[in-house]
Amino acid sequence: QVQLVESGGGSVQAGGSLRLSCAVSGFTSSRYCMGWFRQAPEKEREGVVGICSDGSTNYADSVKGRFTISKDNANKFLSLQMNSLKPEDTATYYCAAKPRSGLPLSADVYNYWGQGTQVTVSS
After folding, report:
1. If 0-12 CB within 10 Å is exposed, 13-18 middle and 19+ buried, where does residue 87 land?
2. CB distance 106 to 46 below 8 Å
3. 121 in the Ramachandran plot: left (φ > 0), alpha (ψ -120 to 50) or beta?
4. Which whole number is the average pLDDT over 81-105?
5. Please, are residues 33 and 22 in contact by the beta-carbon 8 Å criterion?
6. Secondary structure (3-state) at 40
7. What is the DSSP string of 47-108?
């Protein structure tokens, strides 16, 4: 049984930083993508960053240069360092995983999801 559990959300002023963590258990596929997604109220879930077994890392244009994903070699820990936060980054953030590579920022193709953690950025 695959489980993903996020932590580290909170409230911060614009320009500040937060670090999100995701503990992963039961996920053993050698081909994979793992990533972070976010969903703001009344908006669709969007891909923030995905990292895949083919060596690729893809960031959404809106977060390039500000957010950094990291992952351990055993695929048991995923983190998202978020710097220079903006009010438009406010959302519920989810970590996700799938046992295939490709389409790293497409939420529809991910199989496993965490429960989400709230990030609020005030101006």
Report:
1. exposed
2. no
3. beta
4. 96
5. no
6. coil
7. EEEEEETTS-EEE-TTTTTTEEEEE-TTSSEEEEEE-S--GGG-EEEEEEEESS-S-TT-GG
Please state, as a whole number, how many other Cβ atoms lie within 10 Å of the Cβ of residue 82: 23
pLDDT digits (tens, 9 = 90+) for 3-53: 999 999 999 999 999 999 999 999 999 999 999 999 999 999 999 999 999
With 0-12 / 13-18 / 19 or more C-beta atoms within 10 angstroms meaning exposed / middle / buried, residue 74 is exposed
The C-alpha atoms of residue 33 and residue 43 are separated, in whole angstroms, by 23
Q: How confident is the model at residue 90 (pLDDT cuts 50, 70, 90)?
A: very high
